[in-house]
Amino acid sequence: MTPPRLGSLDEIEAALWQQLALAVRDKQQAWRTPVLATVDAEGADARTVILRDVDANARTLLFYTDARSAKAQQISASPPGAFGTLVMWSPALGWQLRLRVVLSVETSGLRVTSCWARLKLTPAAQDYLSPLPPGSAVDTPAPARESREHFAVLAASVQSVDWLELHAQGHRRARFDAGGARWITP
Fold first, then answer.
1. What's the pLDDT at 145?
2. Whole-angstrom distance between the N-terminal and C-terminal Cα of the chain?
3. What's the rounded Cα separation, in Å, for the pair 185 and 42?
4. 155 or 149, greater pLDDT
5. Is-contact 80 66, C-beta < 8 A?
6. Which residues neighbour 6 within 8 Å (Cβ) at sequence distance 6 or greater?
7. Band of residue 17 on the pLDDT scale cut at 50, 70, 90
8. What is the mean pLDDT of residues 47-72?
9. DSSP structure class, residue 161
10. Distance between CA atoms of 126 and 114, rounded to whole angstroms?
């Protein structure tokens, strides 16, 4: 069944932020696992990340990462205000989002401490306790787990949203950014 179409740009923008917030709570929601693309010296580098928090008022999305990961290194090596792109697809809505974001990696501070406090008692905490950086060869038994020193929060400040709706009655596309909301050609 095709979901009903929203009519106005304001309705669409509100709904997409509601869906993003839902993805934090609902592990089955498709936007929970977007693709994040960054750039390194060899070119584009894309990977799936897990959406951990959404602040619609601040237009910020949060993800967790190991501070030694390739994405964290790429962002840290970039000039301040490093850009990235997040791509999300929802088959249920027929919506694709492409979000142009400014990325930052936080390894200390209140936000990192707060996020770690929520995560540390879950199985997912193990991902950030390895003494080996992500992508390391595992030739020997894994060394003992360490402290949270490698846990980092990846903040994505949304600069623009490119929204595409694929619909039986015709495709629609809109852009939401500092210039406002406007319809654009699909």
1. 56
2. 22
3. 32
4. 155
5. no
6. 12, 15
7. very high
8. 95
9. E
10. 17
Instruction: Dig out the tokens for 98 from the structure.
Output: 């492409």
Beta bridge partners of 176: 161, 181
| Nearest-angstrom CA–CA distance, 163 and 110 | 33
Q: What tokens does 114 get? A: 């707060």
CA gap 117, 61 in Å, rounded: 18
Q: Enter the tokens of residue 113.
A: 């401490």
Token pair 């750039």: residue: 39
Q: Which amino acid is at 12?
A: I
Helix then strand count (H, E) for the chain reads 3, 9
Kindly state the tokens that stand for 104: 């930052």
Dig out the tokens for 151 from the structure. 């846990």
- This prediction's pTM: 0.89
Task: List Cβ neighbours of 5 (8 Å cut-off, separation of 6 or more).
Answer: 165, 167, 169
Six-digit token string for 87: 């791509």
User: To which residue do tokens 């010296």 refer?
Assistant: 41
- Compute the distance between CA of residue 89 and CA of residue 94 in angstroms, rounded to an integer: 7
